[in-house]
Structure prediction request, 446 residues.
Amino acid sequence: MKTLIKNGIIVNNGQQFRGHILIDGDTIAYVGGDMPDTQGVTNIIDAENQYVTPGVIDGHVHFREPGLTHKADFESESKAAVAGGVTSFLDMPNVVPQTTTNQLINERIELATQKSVANFGFYLGATNNNIEEIRKADITMVCGIKVFMGSSTGNMLVDENNTLEQIFAESPCPITVHCEDEQIIKANIASFKERFGDKGVLPSHHPLIRTAEACYKSTAKAIELSHKYGTRLHIAHLSTAAELALLEDRPMSEKTVTAETCPHYLFFDSNNYETLGYRIKCNPAIKSPADRQALLLALNTNKIDTIATDHAPHQPSEKFGETYFTSASGIPSVQFSLLAMLELCRNKQTDIETVVRKMCHAPADLYHIAKRGYLQSGYKADIAIVDINKPQAITADTVLSKCKWSPFEGHTFSATVTHTFVNGNLVYHNGEFVSDKKGEALRFNR
Ligand SMILES: [Zn+2]
Prediction:
């Protein structure tokens, strides 16, 4: 089956041009400014005045399956992803049971194959005692090793120094780290409890408990270990200006240490706690306006390599507890990450070529994902079409994630995702799921 996308504004490889894309089966057969041979084409999409981009590859999500499916599952969250132009996701190991063995990786691949409409890959979680599993990971099927160097939801903390050194020395694939120093956070929690009592701690205290200092100390340590062992390291969800000083402003291909940030650190800052409260409570915390500004500037340099969501849904009953301590951390955002980034383009804080590079190209390069992430002949046809002049008001009803809430509720994005192709199948079109074809397990070319 052949599909022609014609007259779109194609954004790819740092350029944009008016052109056409021919999809043959699951593959891109042609991309260019001249009209290709349309013999055998059964579906023609006129993308006049619309942006055509590679499908977004979200390198950091928590889709909660197995074990936490009251919060989210592969079906609900992959649909939210595809509705937002995201065609592939890399899922974190803090599910139940935690993904800390290769057997459990295979079981998640099996589950996602049955349920996910987007393509998928999984991280193997490091613990204080699974170095054997890390050693024997199949690096063509495991996207990376996830190390929590600080506490977070799921409690997969690696806090034994020898183990940490061993993981950095022996990991067969890139390590992604969650960096927040546990001791600093614990001390801050104790001090805030003492000053304000259990019920007096506020959402706005979150960045004063999970501080920039906690991030910096842990990130510096991870980078030190990477230098010591020559380990390929990716810093997840960068949230501070201070940490930027630890990073190099060089093309990704020349670096051993790379970094990710998330739309919520670019879109919100500590001023938003007053109105959004626990809706924007996440780990690491959203920090000061100065941090946000520094991250926005760094986005347009080579200091920040990728944008991922850290999509982390919780049910309202878990998210909006009685106190700070009973309100879960995590923001669902996979459905709105591309739209949020396009909003920053509209505000001239970045440009669409950079957004496509950091959300599509760079994750494909970083994880060595085979034949995806670019609009290129011979590559898999993972494609999003975005109407930048079709506003979309976000309400709880528009949220496809199982949790049914979003920090973007009440906001109107200026753009709308109109079509999403996954492996050549038009899965999503103008608010409807028009195919139930499932996604594929990603392959990593290492
Ligand atoms: Zn995460």
About this structure: Residues 212-229 form the longest helix (18 residues). The two ends are 31 Å apart (CA to CA).
